[in-house]
Amino acid sequence: MSPALETVLAKAGLQVTPDEFLSLVSDAAKRLAPPHPDPASYFTPDQAEALTDVGLDLTPARPQDAKPRARTVVAHAVLRDSALTVAEAARQLQVDTSRIRHRLGVGRLVGWKDKGSWRLPAWQFAGGGVLPGLETVLSAVPVDQPALVVAAFMTTAQEDLLVDGKPATPREWLLAGGDPRRVADLAAMLGTPV
Question: How far, rounded to the nearest angstrom, does the alpha carbon of residue 58 sit from its chain's CA centroid?
Fold first, then answer.
């Protein structure tokens, strides 16, 4: 396998072999719908706007442009690979796995089921705990928003959140000591027309 791919994976902090990563990409590609000339047509206007607001490109694909689909597949594979299992989250937070499941159930952590097992996006963890202000933010997220949309929002720079004069992701804002209510106000708008 390519040493360049091994280097990229190592620099990104992804603890998989190139073959495992390519398998994840292949699995994600199989789960996605076949290429469609207008991806926005799969969604209601409100859903399309929410997805666009968190950084997804829903512009129609041109026959010669396979990159948007490839970028989506790779982003999905990286998000899935970097997510923690319930056991990994429990070890990181030094709690029993039942506490992680409880937190998922009451909305104090976010995750999704993958082949029957919970996956928890890594963005919500920091050091040996959870992201500062996480509960405040998650309590504001509309219940109909999937974990993947929330992950995209939390890792996409927002013009309303400045750190050192530059737009920051909600995660960066919270890690820098920003007020979680500012992020919660933005998160509450997920899925609503602007």
Answer: 17
pLDDT in tens, 33-49: 445 456 666 667 877 77
> What's the pLDDT tens digit per position in 87-107?
999 999 999 999 999 999 999
106-150: pLDDT as tens digits? 999 999 888 889 999 999 999 889 999 999 999 999 988 887 788
CA distance linking residue 140 with residue 138, whole number of Å: 5
> Quick one: tokens of 150?
């929330």
Nearest Cα to 55, choosing from 168, 153, 167?
Answer: 153
Q: Which amino acid is at 168?
A: A
At 66, the amino acid letter reads A
User: How far from chain centre, in Å, is Cα 39?
Assistant: 19
Residues ≥6 apart with Cβ < 8 Å to 141: 107, 110, 150, 187, 188, 190
Where would I find the beta strands (DSSP E) of 34-182?
A: 112-114, 117-119, 125-126, 129-130, 158-163, 166-168
Q: Mapping DSSP to helix (H, G, I), strand (E, B) and coil, where does residue 130 land?
A: strand
Distance CA 50, CA 148 (A): 12
